[in-house]
């Protein structure tokens, strides 16, 4: 057996285990899902010393191509609360902040392209049909229970490593992502954790999530959220 064949078999075995967990009732129903819309409630902070700020958000994740849009409202209910948009659309990533509908900040460029695509690649915990319906994703086994995924049409070199349990549960994704500090981005170890799953529309989806930067001085968890609702957008027959 060639070394590549063994790697291919290991990749297929891990993907089968992951799909079995994500689609407990079978894959047929999920094959018609074009995107997943979630509403979220959580809290985030800008630095290890900052206070946690509550937010509500809505996120749409495409299952057929690399694309997502997360629109959040920090301090919901307050007058002049900003709108924060985190997105990867049409091959480019960006972060935008609006107040009263007026743009006050926008971050874009190659670092944003890579970082936001990496965020999308970790979205299998929110949108499992990515595993079935996204034709340009490439999965490779890089450990006994770890899959690396990239988009073949991406030019930034973006990847994430997805760690699964023996049962196929996607527990954590890891990557080296650009972290914005002031006006400059630095490649920094990052992780996203799935803390609990529940079944929606025949799919197992993370209910609780956390994201963190792994800084030299220690772990900096900056995002904690709960999925409040989920709606699958299906292809019309």
Q: How do the helices and strands follow one another from N- to C-terminus?
A: HEEEEEEHHEEEEEEE
Spatial order of strands in the largest sheet? 6-5-4-3-2-1-13-12-11-10-9-8-7
Number of helices: 3
Class per helix and strand makeup: alpha+beta
**What is the architecture at the second tier of CATH?**
Clam
CA distance, first residue to last residue: 44 Å
Largest sheet: 13 strands, antiparallel
Low-confidence runs (pLDDT<50, min 5 residues)? none
Secondary structure: number of strands: 13
Radius of gyration: 18 Å
CATH class: Mainly Beta
Binned strand content = over 45%
| Average pLDDT for all residues | 93
Please indicate the count of domains. Answer: 1
| Fraction of residues in helix | 10-25%
CATH fold assignment: outer membrane lipoprotein receptor (LolB), chain A
Please state the overall shape, judged from the principal axes of the Cα atoms: globular
Can you describe what's shown?
The protein is an alpha+beta fold. The chain has one domain (3-232): outer membrane lipoprotein receptor (LolB), chain A. The chain has three helices and 13 strands. It has helices spanning 3-22, 110-121, 130-133, and strands at 33-44, 53-62, 68-74, 83-89, 92-99, 102-108, 137-143, 146-151, 160-164, 170-181, 184-200, 203-215, 218-234. It has a 13-stranded antiparallel beta sheet with strand order 6-5-4-3-2-1-13-12-11-10-9-8-7. β4 and β5 (92-99) form a beta hairpin. It is globular, with a radius of gyration of 18 Å. The N and C termini lie far apart (44 Å).
């Amino acid at each position: 057996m060639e070394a590549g064949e063994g790697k291919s078999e290991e990749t297929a075995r891990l993907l089968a285990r992951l799909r079995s967990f994500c689609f407990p009732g079978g894959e047929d129903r999920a094959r018609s899902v074009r995107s997943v819309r979630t509403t979220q409630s959580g809290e985030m902070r800008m630095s290890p010393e900052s206070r946690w700020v509550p937010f509500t958000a809505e996120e749409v994740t495409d299952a057929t191509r690399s694309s997502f849009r997360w629109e959040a409202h920090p301090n919901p209910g307050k007058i002049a609360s900003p709108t924060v948009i985190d997105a990867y659309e049409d091959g480019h990533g960006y972060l935008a902040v609006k107040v009263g509908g007026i743009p006050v900040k926008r971050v874009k460029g190659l670092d944003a392209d890579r970082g936001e695509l990496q965020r999308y690649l970790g979205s299998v915990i929110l949108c499992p049909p990515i595993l079935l319906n996204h034709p340009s994703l490439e999965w490779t086994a890089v450990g006994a229970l770890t899959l690396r995924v990239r988009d073949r049409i991406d030019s930034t070199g973006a990847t994430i490593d997805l760690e699964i349990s023996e049962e196929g549960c996607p527990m954590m994704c890891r990557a080296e992502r650009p972290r914005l500090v002031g006006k400059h981005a630095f490649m920094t170890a990052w992780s996203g954790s799935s803390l609990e799953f529940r079944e929606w529309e025949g799919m197992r989806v993370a209910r609780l999530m956390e994201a963190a930067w792994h800084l030299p001085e220690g772990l900096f968890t900056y995002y904690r959220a709960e999925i409040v609702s989920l709606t699958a957008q299906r292809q019309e027959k």
